[in-house]
Amino acid sequence: TALAFRVSHGDLHDARFRAHAIPVVQTEGLVVSPGGQNRTYFYIEDRMAQIVRIIAATDFSRAADRATRRAASLASRLSGELHLIHVMPPADLLQQIFGGDHQSEAIRIRAEKALQERATLLTAGYAIKPACKLVQGRAHEAIAQAGKSLDAMLVVVGARGEHEGDSSAEPVGGTAFKLVARSPTPILLVRHEIYQPYGNVLACVKGVATDRPVIEWANRVSPGNLLHILSAYKVPYERRLMEWGASQSTIDVYATRERDERTKLLWELLDEFGLMAARARLHVARGEPLETI
Length: 293
Hints:
Blueprint: E1 2-6, H1 9-12, H2 15-21, E2 28-32, E3 53-57, H3 62-77, E4 81-88, H4 91-98, H5 101-126, E5 131-136, H6 139-149, E6 154-158, H7 174-182, E7 187-190, E8 201-204, H8 212-221, E9 227-233, H9 238-243, H10 248-272, E10 280-286, H11 289-292
Parallel strand pairs: 1-2, 1-8, 3-4, 3-6, 4-5, 6-7, 8-9, 9-10
Antiparallel strand pairs: 2-7
Helix pairs in contact: 3-5, 6-7
């Protein structure tokens, strides 16, 4: 199962979102971040002319290896390109630690060898030949920059990296979280080992025009299965309004209008993508969004 959703800057600073929305039901999460709101997305009829370029970032951990396998599976199935990258520490940090270029060069050679070994395994398993690249800098910045410079359509990372299994209660690692916040490219957070292509995709939308990239990627990662498009909403300040004297019927009228407007807009978006009822199931549900999702 995969979950596709869009986040805002406000969401990212909400403690409940950090604790519950990103890791909801421990599914894979494809996040369209705030930085990606101005990106141009391609509709279904344009796909044959597109190069699907995917970046998989690895720190050589088990969590990252799972992510690279998922990235290779997606790139192979979409007839796309896969770029495998590893971020080395900043050059000035290596200089401070080792005090010379010789040890830094030895580390670079070992990292390059490890990257090539993983590329070889992906080629054998998924019939795709990744391009390999070492970059330097702060991990989230270097990965985001690689996504930009390569004009990638997707960046795939492990939800937790080298610190997976630590006692920390955080469900998303620091690098992954910073990428979600700042990357202009959609991010796929991988949690589980790949056993088969994604089959069940729940796309969480808000009933606004910028839901397009969420629907686009939900359709991409599961082209042959029924999509579930969910828009959960609630009446703003509902409890406070009732305390101020608003009747339940008045609040229900607002809720009905909100449901009808969202339903109309979302069907228009689905129509743009050529996604009719036989391909996509639309759910517009009143309720607490996190609980509903």
